[in-house]
Amino acid sequence: DAKTTQPPSMDCAEGRAANLPCNHSTISGNEYVYWYRQIHSQGPQYIIHGLKNNETNEMASLIITEDRKSSTLILPHATLRDTAVYYCIVFSGGSNYKLTFGKGTLLTVNP
Amino acid sequence: SQTIHQWPATLVQPVGSPLSLECTVEGTSNPNLYWYRQAAGRGLQLLFYSVGIGQISSEVPQNLSASRPQDRQFILSSKKLLLSDSGFYLCARAGIGDTEAFFGQGTRLTVV
Q1: Which chain A positions have a beta carbon within 8 Å of B101's beta carbon?
Q2: pLDDT tens, B86-97?
Q3: In 3D, which of B87, A42, A51, A76 has the Cα closest to residue B76?
Q4: How far apart are CA A26 and CA A68, in angstroms?
Q5: Shortest Cα–Cα distance, A75 to chain B (Å)
Q6: Which end of chain B is more exposed for a tag (fewer CB within 10 A), N or C?
Q7: Looking at the predicted structure, is the pLDDT value of residue B53 above 90?
Q8: Mean pLDDT of all residues in chain A?
Q9: What's the average model confidence in pLDDT over B56-81?
């Protein structure tokens, strides 16, 4: 019962920006948008999160539309090591929340 | 520290044998704890989550059970494993005020 929709796969050339979209049209007012990625056989790695403002950190940028129904994760200069499954999830923080993942997007960075 | 200890890393078990996977966490007290399973080529499926000692919520009917005997200990068990129980099992934690969830390195279970 994931609340997000992502394309199953995307390709990107090494050194170029990777833009990963996510739809979350039923997001509620107190839910954040989180992005994780999972490299094969490892636990998911946190990337970034946001509520309604755009966010940037050393790994990526997160652009959230004004109506908050969709967002885009941007990896500004993709490398081969960025090849992974990227998960977009929505949930509210606090003491009682359920963390549910969808199927994610397999990003393949090509040389 | 937000460390999660999960062991073993890999496990091969015969059908019908019991299972016990343990997850222990460090960091803030009273964290939310989660067990996930990932079948080959599939996404992360939430199996159980716990908001406190002795409090377990099951997300899907299955051959597995979970227990939380201590605040920072979460155990995944089965009395008799099935072939379909094979997969990659991940433990995760998130505490009050945490801005993210933290994952262990996982246990790859193969039931033969």
Answers
A1: 46, 99
A2: 999 999 987 665
A3: B87
A4: 9
A5: 19
A6: N
A7: yes
A8: 90
A9: 92
- Name the residue facing B49 among A34, A87, A98 (closest C-beta): A98
A43 vs B contacts (CB less than 8 Å): 90, 92, 103-106
Cβ distance A100 to B96 less than 8 Å, yes or no, reads no
B contacts of A97 (beta carbons < 8 Å): 32, 94
Residues 6+ apart with CB under 8 A from A67: none
Q: So what's the pLDDT on residue A32?
A: 86
The Cα angle at residue B29 between residues A95 and B26, in degrees rounded to 5: 120
Q: Mean of the pLDDT values across residues A82-110?
A: 83
User: What does the alpha-carbon distance between residue B52 and residue B50 come to, in Å, rounded to a whole number?
Assistant: 6
Sign of the torsion formed by the C-alpha atoms of A107, A9, A65 and A99: negative
Joined together, the tokens standing for residue A100 give 């549910």
Rounded to 5°, angle at Cα A61 from A56 and A67: 100
- Eight-state DSSP code of residue B83: G
- DSSP β-ladder status, A9-13 and A105-110: parallel
Beta-carbon separation of A96 and B32 below 8 A: yes
CA angle B46, B50, B51 (to 5 degrees): 130
Model confidence at B99: pLDDT above 90: no
pLDDT at residue number B42: 78
B15-50 pLDDT, tens digit per residue, is 999 999 999 998 778 888 999 998 877 788 899 999
